[in-house]
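Pasting as-is:
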Amino acid sequence: MNQEFYAIFHKPTGKYMPARMFEHSRGGWTWWEPTGVGGYEGHDPEIPRLFLKRNAAAQAMGYWLKGNYSLRAVPSDFDDRTGTLRVESPHIPRSPKDVEIHVITCVVTRVI
């Protein structure tokens, strides 16, 4: 049985977007900096973040290219998760030509 997954690959560094990110409240994968210059490399650079659908990987890549996203909480009577989404320009420019989506095929076999 085979299962296809999709991963975001940064061509200049040869790194995949990691499966786990930072232990801080700034945000998620949009803060990943594959060059390590900003100190936001991620916890597990050897284990790639896998997506079940190509569109999901493409959407994540698009958000990453735009910059660093963060959610600023705003008090609300209706929902304590209300906030303002901000996008900051990344410290190091990001280019679509530097990233691509790779197909990763997982082959499951049974040994008896």
